[in-house]
Write a structure and sequence with these properties.
The protein has 100 residues and is mainly alpha-helical. The protein contains 4 helices and 2 strands, in the order αβααβα. α1 crosses α3 and α2 packs parallel to α4. The radius of gyration is 17 Å and the shape is elongated.
């Protein structure tokens, strides 16, 4: 029983840490990376928007007007958005791995 409670406590602590990190990421995304639906974006914006896609996606649950990807963009924007988005997802998924 003590082992189960210990595991439950660890899971709770990890969930709280993850929630705090995501709230901070969403606040930073709202401050630095709010996507305007009426603007055409180019390649450097694709890098920026791809980096903040996950926090903007979470923000879109609470505010339907938040975009994860611009509506009007160049082909270079699309390329760099995908490159950065996939790289950031791989970074998120691989961040828990420890190399000893």
């Amino acid at each position: 029983m003590k082992t189960f409670l210990g595991i439950l406590a660890v899971i709770g602590i990890l969930a709280v840490r993850l929630a705090i990190i995501m709230v901070i990421a969403c606040l930073v995304a709202a401050w630095l990376c709010d996507i305007d639906s009426n603007k055409t974006y180019s390649w450097y914006s694709g890098i920026w928007h791809g980096l903040f896609c996950v926090p903007n996606w979470i923000r879109s649950f609470f505010n339907g007007d938040v975009l994860c990807k611009a509506n009007d963009y160049t082909s270079a924007y699309n390329f760099w958005w995908w490159v950065t988005f996939i790289s950031s997802l791989l970074g998120i998924l691989g961040s828990g791995k420890k190399n000893y």
